[in-house]
Design a protein that fits this description.
Strand content: 5-15%
CATH topology: Arc Repressor Mutant, subunit A
Oligomer: single chain
CATH superfamily: Winged helix-like DNA-binding domain superfamily/Winged helix DNA-binding domain
CATH class: Mainly Alpha
Largest sheet: 2 strands, antiparallel
Number of helices: 6
Number of strands: 2
Shape: globular
Strand order of the largest sheet: 1-2
CATH architecture: Orthogonal Bundle
Length: 150
């Protein structure tokens, strides 16, 4: 299989981010870590992913600083994968993808999960970008501005 071209030095932040977490297994591992899963076997059971693929993705997420490895919290000989602050900061991106999926990928009445606040049980508000006056922005209302290197 041909190795894909790295986008880690691309001048587009989206390209760099997708290079890091753009495959489905990496995003689903991050999602599961946000849901409290931390052990290899639990990731494997929840995702149904082959051990070699899971091992590869976990190693890459640790190497890239999105997950950290630590001794198991229960004192057993196992290790746990926990989100770093960088990994935790992907939460808005995960929520935005989830909400987009809820709106566009399910038929009316089709069963699916939703994200709710723990304390209230209320559905999380839609993630939408706003302008400086609080109005919702559409893609047509924005332009990418390239910054020169310092």
């Amino acid at each position: 299989m041909a190795k894909r071209k790295s986008l880690r030095t691309d001048d587009c932040p989206v390209a760099r981010a997708v290079d890091l977490v753009g495959d489905r297994w990496s995003m689903l591992i991050i999602r599961d870590a946000m849901d409290g899963i931390s052990r290899f076997g639990d990731f494997q059971r929840n995702l149904g992913v082959a051990r070699n693929i899971l091992s590869d993705r976990l190693s890459a997420l640790v190497e890239d600083g999105l997950l950290a490895v630590q001794p198991a919290s229960d004192g057993s000989a196992y290790q746990e994968y926990v989100l770093t602050s960088s990994g935790e900061s992907l939460f808005p991106a995960i929520v935005a993808l989830r909400q987009w999926g809820e709106r566009h990928l399910f038929a009316p009445g089709e069963a699916h999960s939703i994200l709710v606040e723990k304390g209230t049980g209320k559905r999380v508000s839609a993630m939408l970008p706003h302008d400086h006056e609080g109005k919702v922005l559409k893609a047509t209302h924005t332009v990418v501005k390239k910054l020169a290197a310092k």
